[in-house]
Amino acid sequence: MKINKFAKLGTVVALSSLFLVACGSKSSSTASKQVLNWNESAELPTMDLSTATDVVSFDTLNNTNEGLYRLGKDSKIEPGIATKTQVSNNGKTYTFTLRKDSKWSNGQKVTAKDFVYSWQRTVNPKTASQYAYLFSGIENADDIMNGKKAVSTLGIKAEGNYKLVVTLDKKLPYFKLLMGFPVFFPQNEKAVKEYGSKYGTASKYMVYNGPFTLTKWTGSNLSWTLKKNNNYWDKKNVKLSAINYKVNKSTTTSYNLYQSGKLDETTLSAEQAKQLANSKELVIRKGASTFYLQYNQTKKEYQNANIRKAISLVIDRKQFVNKVLGDGSTVAKGLAASGLAKLNGKDFADAASVDSAVATNRAEAKKLWAKGLKELGVTSLDIQLLSDDTDKAKDSTTFLQSQIEENLSGAKVSVSNVPFKTRLARSVSGDFGIVVSGWGADFSDPISFLDLFTSDNSQNNGKWKNAEYDKLIEASKTTDAANTTKRWNDLVKAQKILLNDQGISPLYQQATATLVKSKVKGVIYNAAGVNYNFKDAYIAK
């Protein structure tokens, strides 16, 4: 999913999770003190799960709503709306029995029909969901998204109110993990139709069926509150009465609020992380997320591979992660994050790496730059670099700007640091030259990254295209889907094509240095998918 400079990431099987182990007496914590004050680094763009694409939205959706499953510590499947799951012998039909005590905040029962409505709404081309591609593999989903079949033919049906049947075109090894991701959550048809275009744009234009409800969010403000949902089926196990979010784009500001007791968590800058290296409250969040440069290849200059390669080769990534970030982030080996998936003990990130794609070689860069300029028939280039407006993002773009301008003759870099929501919108509309993008794996498989850069993927904002790459990704989903080795090799070859062509320039795999008050217990953090699960969190006495 799309992430910003401070983005936290979610659940994955292949990566170990950070779990603040519950200790002390939960019963001793009075309800009046069960309020968590949490720092956030970016505004909340939307609460419409069909159109959400970013980590802040999905985090909030995950804690205010619920799907068939919840994903807990180490991505363990936990009870959600489904109380029982039956899988056919061929692995292509799932039958879910749903609980009868789950309600929406408007008082209506959560039923199988809510899942059918939600999934059909998301894959409907009229909705223009950027995440609809995740439904590929569910019967008829691809044809529906391509306008060849009606949404009613999607492989999901309600048999009464409390039995849901999902039919797949092919066996999906990660299907159950997807069911814990908000894109696959139910939606209340009455609310969607009642609120119309306002649906999901403010807390009052939304209904909830999860541990918390969202309040005090206008759609553009920089603070909001999650309030315990007294209609939630498992409310007895929800200890927090409220979670107050405050957006702070400056780590200096958030750290001061943390020190004064107004925040229970804060993200740290590189310098702060160094100074607090021995603090007992320091927590390093390691994520299955990669930051990279996307080049707008609708523009002639970025269609030139020599220009793209030259820009990548002048960036000293070791200096970047150690001096600028200083938060535990590491140099990316490629697009797919390290630790995400392994086959026969071999990490995919190692198997699919291309050394030159993340190397620093300024002599070679200058040769390629000169060659690229000559091919374009120019002697200089104006480069528009887009990123977020947080302190860390500003430090990052300042570093990248200096690396390019100081090493490539005739390069002039203009930087635009804008709010997260604006950066997302400009990326989608193509209003950039080069954009610093971030992606966190939605589930523990390399396809979660590699799917992004197929020619027609809605997340491919730079519009890079390669026919062989597309064929390999397609084969991994179809002809080779059931053959683990062939599928793995398809994905390895695909990433190497992307990296050799410098379709994107990988920068770093993200980690985030944070401080969390020792009184905060039971918060679950995982590395890919949805970031945080606060259902079991509480404040110790």
**Amount of helix:** 25-40%
Distance between termini? Answer: 36 Å
Main sheet specs? 7 strands, mixed
Q: Count of DSSP helices?
A: 17
Mean pLDDT: 92
Class per helix and strand makeup: alpha+beta
Task: Give the CA-based shape.
Answer: globular
- Look at the structure and name the CATH superfamily of the largest domain: Dipeptide-binding Protein, Domain 1
Instruction: Please report the total strand number as a whole number.
Output: 24
What portion of the residues fall into strands of 2 or more residues? 15-25%
How would you sum up this structure, described in words?
By secondary structure, this protein is an alpha+beta fold. It has two domains: 35-244 and 517-539, Alpha-Beta Complex (Dipeptide-binding Protein, domain 1); 288-512, Dipeptide-binding Protein, Domain 3 (Dipeptide-binding Protein, domain 3, Roll). Helices cover 28% and strands 22% of the residues. It has 17 helices and 24 strands. Strands 12, 13, 14, 17, 18, 19 and 20 form a seven-stranded mixed sheet that branches. Strand 9 (212-215) and strand 10 (223-228) form a beta hairpin. The longest helix has 17 residues, at 391-407. The chain is globular, with a radius of gyration of 23 Å. Mean pLDDT is 92; it is low at 5-31.
What are the salient characteristics of this protein?
541 residues, alpha+beta, Dipeptide-binding Protein, domain 1, Dipeptide-binding Protein, domain 3, 7-stranded mixed β-sheet, 4-stranded mixed β-sheet, 17 helices, 28% helix
